[in-house]
Design goal:
180 residues, mainly alpha, elongated
Length: 180
């Protein structure tokens, strides 16, 4: 990986040197002449191709290193002793009734599926008690499982406060994600 970093840095310096020398020519006409006779476009394309190749090498090596590190973590990770909030996951009996809340569910599904640059990272579902927020959450989690995308689902339940589920949220999600 260090060799790739070094090559990227060297190529960047070569490009910077080319730009610096090219821009030293004050006259537009001389630059135009250089452009025609020295095949500046070919040189720039060559630099671009080299940098593209180096960046692809970097991405390939980074992906390989990520897989190796994840494999090492997986081998050494012991989740047996982690606390887990049993019953805090998806409960399909708590989903919305068929053909209800269709507009809201579609809005949430569109938000989840959005690939837009400026899409909000959080969808805040709020309302008074008993308005169906949990039913919507369970319905969306069930839909997302069907899509093959759910890694974990954690739901709070005020009737089970003695279980102190809130203390186990991160360990439960981590365990669920490790099991994916």
């Amino acid at each position: 990986m260090l060799a790739t970093y070094r090559n990227i840095a060297q190529q960047t310096l070569v490009c910077a040197d080319f730009i610096s020398h090219y821009s030293e020519t004050k006259s537009v006409w001389i630059r135009l002449g250089k452009h025609i006779f020295d095949e500046t476009d070919t040189t720039i394309q060559s630099y671009n191709d080299t940098l593209d190749s180096l960046m692809q090498q970097f991405r390939d090596l980074a992906a390989r290193d990520t897989v190796v590190i994840a494999h090492h973590i997986d081998e050494s990770l012991d989740l047996v002793g982690m606390e887990y909030a049993t019953g805090a996951g998806l409960n399909t009996s708590k989903c919305c009734l068929p053909n209800t809340r269709q507009d809201l569910l579609k809005d949430i599904q569109n938000w989840i599926s959005s690939t837009e640059e400026g899409a909000p990272r959080i969808f805040w579902l709020s309302g008074t008690a008993g308005k169906g927020k949990s039913a919507v959450a369970h319905t969306i989690a069930n839909w997302y499982i069907d899509q093959g995308g759910l890694g974990s689902c954690f739901c709070f339940d005020r009737t089970r406060q003695a279980d102190r589920r809130q203390d186990k949220i991160f360990t439960t999600i981590a365990s669920d994600l490790a099991d994916c």
